[in-house]
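quick q for whoever's on today - can somebody do inverse folding on this one?? i tried earlier but teh output was garbage lol. tokens:
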């Protein structure tokens, strides 16, 4: 944002209407002023430079698609009303219509899953840039199963007794990611299961704390808020849950698997390709009953076997493997003189 000359804008994270207006202002600023500056920066790059971007800038030879707003609204139901309720949505939809229908902005769109590639075509019709699929990866050296001491320390910090299971949720958009449904699911379990929640704005945290089922959990609900480094929380959990309505590629699922946590998740993004029922987790519908049943099946399974299978899955998706796929694409593009040299963020985006 500083390079887009928007450092003077208020920081995101304020509660209520003011917070939403700040986010909208920052997105519009970066999408307009940031795009102009990014294209100027790209023009100054040496021939053969390949420029990559994602999200708000309408610039770059390669655009990495991290999600389709309209598809996310459709998945949650009442898409038209949801779009109208948030003035930022019509702006981003229009902006991305320009992105995908033009031949002069991007040469290639990288989708994180084949599902997203199909959703892109369904939403925007004929996509002019070439479309490819390259998923995300995980640092399996950093995200690894905890030692016994690391697990004990994490459980002590969370004040969770050794004999009581802990379910982990990590995310900022509680509604879209299914936290209310998860709270209802945990409250209906017979066993005393703890729910640890990382992320959320002050408004969202206050709202979930007032949820009727949340009150019934009492001290078993741990609302930690945003954490700069939540790795230690993974060490204290027994299962990770993401009951999202829509995801492009939730890195947190791979991070959970890498730390040996079985995953209970809805079939969004890469989940159908990563999670195998009874092997390293459960794929469930987005209802409290289905989520509860999935958690129950995982907690009643073989902990060591599930953890081993989860870790093995993550090892197939290291960042090294992902980097190799990107290098093939970028070397191919570098062999030609990009036709849209007016494209993308400065050196930070290369």
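ok took a stab at it. sequence:
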């Amino acid at each position: 944002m500083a390079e887009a000359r928007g450092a003077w804008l208020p920081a995101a994270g304020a509660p209520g209407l003011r917070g939403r207006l700040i986010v909208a202002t920052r997105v519009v600023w970066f999408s307009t002023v940031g795009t102009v500056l990014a294209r100027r920066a790209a023009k100054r790059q040496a021939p053969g430079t390949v420029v990559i971007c994602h999200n708000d800038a309408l610039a770059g030879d390669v655009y990495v698609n991290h999600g389709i707003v309209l598809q996310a609204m459709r998945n949650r139901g009442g898409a038209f009303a949801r779009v109208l309720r948030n003035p930022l949505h019509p702006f981003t939809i229009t902006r991305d219509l320009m992105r995908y229908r033009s031949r002069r902005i991007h040469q290639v769109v990288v989708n994180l899953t084949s599902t997203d590639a199909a959703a892109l075509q369904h939403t925007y019709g004929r996509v002019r840039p070439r479309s490819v699929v390259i998923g995300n990866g995980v640092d399996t050296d950093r995200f690894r199963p905890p030692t016994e001491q690391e697990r004990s320390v994490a459980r002590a910090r969370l004040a969770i007794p050794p004999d009581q299971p802990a379910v982990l949720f990590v995310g900022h958009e509680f509604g879209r990611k299914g936290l209310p449904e998860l709270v209802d699911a945990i409250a209906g379990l017979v066993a005393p299961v703890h729910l640890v929640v990382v992320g959320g704005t002050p408004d969202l945290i206050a709202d979930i704390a007032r949820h009727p089922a949340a009150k019934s959990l009492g001290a078993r609900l741990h609302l930690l808020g945003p954490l700069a480094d939540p790795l230690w929380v993974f060490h204290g959990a027994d299962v990770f849950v993401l009951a999202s309505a829509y995801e492009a590629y939730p890195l947190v699922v791979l991070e959970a698997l890498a730390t040996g946590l079985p995953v209970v998740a809805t079939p969004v993004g890469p989940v159908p390709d990563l999670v195998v029922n009874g092997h390293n987790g459960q794929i469930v519908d987005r209802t409290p009953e289905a989520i509860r049943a999935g958690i129950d099946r995982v907690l009643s399974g073989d902990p060591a076997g599930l953890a081993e299978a989860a870790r093995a899955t993550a090892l197939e998706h290291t960042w090294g493997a992902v980097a190799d796929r990107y290098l093939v694409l970028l070397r191919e593009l570098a062999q030609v003189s990009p036709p849209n040299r007016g494209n993308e963020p400065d050196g930070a985006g290369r």
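fwiw DSSP finds 15 helices and ten strands in the chain. also The chain has two domains: 16-131+320-349, 148-315. so keep that in mind when u check it
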